[in-house]
Amino acid sequence: MSGINFFTTRDLEKIEDFYLNELEMELWLDQGECSIFKHGNMLLGFCQGENEHTQGVITFFYRRKEHVDEMYEKLSDVAEEEPVENENFQIYQFFAEDPEGRTLEFQTFLHPVDPYLGGEELLQGRRSVRDYREKKVPEETLLNIFETCRYAPTSRNSQSYYFVPIEDEDMIEFLSKRRGGNSAPIRKAPMAVAICCDPEETGRPKQDGDIAAYHFMLTAWAHGLGTCWIAAMDRDDVKEELNISEDHYVATVTPLGYPVKVPETPSRKEAEEFVKRID
Ligand SMILES: Cc1cc2nc3c(=O)[nH]c(=O)nc-3n(C[C@H](O)[C@H](O)[C@H](O)COP(=O)(O)O)c2cc1C
Asked: Which ligand 1 atom is the nearest neighbour of the CA of 127?
């Protein structure tokens, strides 16, 4: 199910200017007398009317404290006061007003939250993370990730992949040293996960394993967790140490943890450059 919250406004043009330019929402749909804006998974509609609806609170939430601070820098002239921690709700927040006096709240949660990202934001926002906070990954979060990973596609629905969670510090140290700088990010995280595939259960162990690994990385990101594909970990020494049969395929061993910060997006080619049309 999806939804939109609608408000009436006396001045659609002024509201458009504020929500698009100041709050950097996107115009999701222009219906003429109504405009619908998008911020992450939130859809907000404003329709021209005789008077304005101003009741309630419109809350924007962000992945990290720094994003709330950035919004405060932008909106300090319409903000009530600087961002503060609210222990009651374990959030970091500040309040501001839109041009018609609606209360706006900008916040981040100071505890893990269940997934909320929309598909595009998830696919475009995932980054390879190489620097992690010490905070452990809660067992419940890990189980929720594995629950979603049941839905990865596999050849003939073989469901041939499996995950090996690794928390032992010596094991993490061992793994992080396998491939020099390439595998070093493993040491920075509180845990790692090997994503493997059993060739006795599928004719396509590499494809099944690689897809499951990417499925895992996206699901982890949806839960606020970072990962990083570490290549060429399908090695005898890794399998021996992790007690994985030598004929099994190890797609990757990824670090897993909460990012220190979300890395900048590395440059990407234009969409058309990825497409080779047949003349
Ligand atoms: C097949 C593959 C192998 C990779 N190997 C490594 C690696 O060994 N070590 C590492 O730190 N990152 C590795 N990466 C991560 C890439 O460097 C990263 O995906 C790329 O720079 C784009 O950044 P992004 O993932 O943040 O979009 C690998 C990624 C892929 C898909």
From this structure: 26
